[in-house]
TrEMBL record:
Residues 1-26 form the signal peptide. The keyword Transport does not apply. Gene3D superfamilies: Divalent-metal-dependent TIM barrel enzymes. Coiled coil: none annotated. The keyword Thylakoid does not apply. Keywords: Isomerase, Signal. It comes from the Bacteria. Residues 51-270 form the Xylose isomerase-like TIM barrel domain. It holds the Pfam family AP_endonuc_2. It comes from Mucilaginibacter rubeus. This is Sugar phosphate isomerase/epimerase.
Amino acid sequence: MTTRRSFLKTSALLSAGLLAAPNLFAYDKKYIGLQLYTVRDAMAADPVAALAKVAKTGFTSVEGATYTGTELFYGMRPGDFANVLKQNGLIMPSAHYRLGEELVNGEQQKGTIMNDWKKAVDDAAEAGVQYMVCAYLSQSERGNLDHYKNVANMLDIAGETCKGAGIQLCYHNHDFEFIQENGKYPYEILLENTDKDLVKMEMDLYWVNKANQDPIALIDKHPGRFPLWHVKDMDKTPEKKFTEVGNGVIDFKKIFTQAKKSGLKYFFVEQDVCPGDPFVSIAQSISYIKKNLV
């Protein structure tokens, strides 16, 4: 028979085990995030006012979309930007970066994985960033499957640098990673040729669906590999345009049942193109999310 002492001992051991394995928990539902690319014009014009408006709309976290390698997040130093976030009750657990293999005006881009990455990592740490995400590969950065293996190696190296600062590196997909070559998807190459602890994935649910892939099948095949999601909907037209969350064809309710298996920690609403005022669109999206997903 279980005694009170043995019960308390077992409970303490269980609690310690759970604390040591945070992936057993689902994401924190108090954080509803916005990828700031959605309100990029407002952020460019007046980032302080834009962040206040984002918070007033109901969002509690944001994902950065602009870092130029000059110690600045939207024109502010990392610590100053973190203070603005705090004043508005926001956190920025994640931010986007570029690979940097493509030359711009004949020069490498600073603050990228391939150029001055350690400085980018240090700035991210000061700003409170937990996830640094390789956001996009330009046309010249894609190449064939062998080149994707080289990209995977670069991601591993960058992930080691991130790890040293207590940050997790991720890779954000579009649909071009699902164009087959010799029966293989580039996305598979990235998943299979990167260290699963050094490089995780930010799954963009719109682009996965547009590429006719099943996000749940990807989660089943690679559990725990997707701590970040972009919650972005696809409209019902043949063009498959961006639309507000809940206004399109993606079954978010079904996908969110797999949040724990995915390893989800944070998700971010993103709408690359809005039909009018982006703040009207994000208000519609967050209303749907609060009523149906969290």
